[in-house]
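Our platform keeps sequence and structure together, in a single record for each protein. Such a record has a labelled line for the sequence and another for the backbone structure tokens. This encoding replaces a full spatial description with a residue-level series of whole-number codes. Below, we set out a record of this kind in full and without editing:
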Amino acid sequence: MDEGLKNIVHVDSQILNSIGLCGERYRLEHVLNRRPVSKAEALERGAVMHTMLAHYYRGRKDGRTAPETHGALVEEAIMLGREEAAVAEFDLSQFEQEDLQTFKDNILHHQYDGWEILDVEEPFTKLLYDSDDLQILYEGIVDLHIKDAHGEKAVVDHKTEARQSHPFELSNQFQGYQWAFDSKMIVNKIGFQKTLPFKEKFRRLYFPYKDELLAEWKRDVVDSIRTAIHWHQTKYFPRNRTSCDKYSGCIFQRVCKEEPEMRDYRLNEFYIQTEPWDVFTRDNV
């Protein structure tokens, strides 16, 4: 990002979240491109579930819904899940009893939802802002793009959870998806809880954002990007200490809590350097 030249910025919800949380986190995550050595278990479980769901919904898109093809489709998705779980070194017994059973229960619960699958893991790039000095391209990959039983289009994002929780309605991800596709947003909740009935474990939450809210979101995106450009120009990325304990704690706490001369050592000890974050190759990071 060079002062005096037009900045062309590619941004997604992950980068926006990082900017909003803390300048130093943004620097470590998206300037130095550091990631923890290993993913949190919840993220690993969610990634495997996403893989199985993506295969299943691609099959539905291709018309594999009849009894003679649907069972084979579910088994194919399960085999993919087992392969990923083995690579991730899951407890395979727990995976069979909890994750695979949850996947099968979820499919059973929503098998006759009336959804027409328009696309699966659909990438997009859309111009969000353009001026003499700045162009912002907003990007992402949506889990599902569907037409529901009433003929209305919607964007769907799968979210796994060990405890029942309500999504943050002002999420950059959800508002960005609705803005990009001009259709309502559905969060497809998939719970790992053993004791809850299906209707509480497998919830589909609707978030139809008003145009005024999306206009505010767009203005906030532009402001966030201009803030980050200023950080790059000054090479000063201020810490936001009030965000350190948000979302189970910042992944870089073990670096920032050290005295300055020890931070590079901790960074190299607990974090690897990866390719720059790219939403279209996110699963390789």
Q: What stands out?
A: Strands lie at 7-11, 34-36, 116-130, 134-147, 153-161, 184-191, 202-207, 271-273.
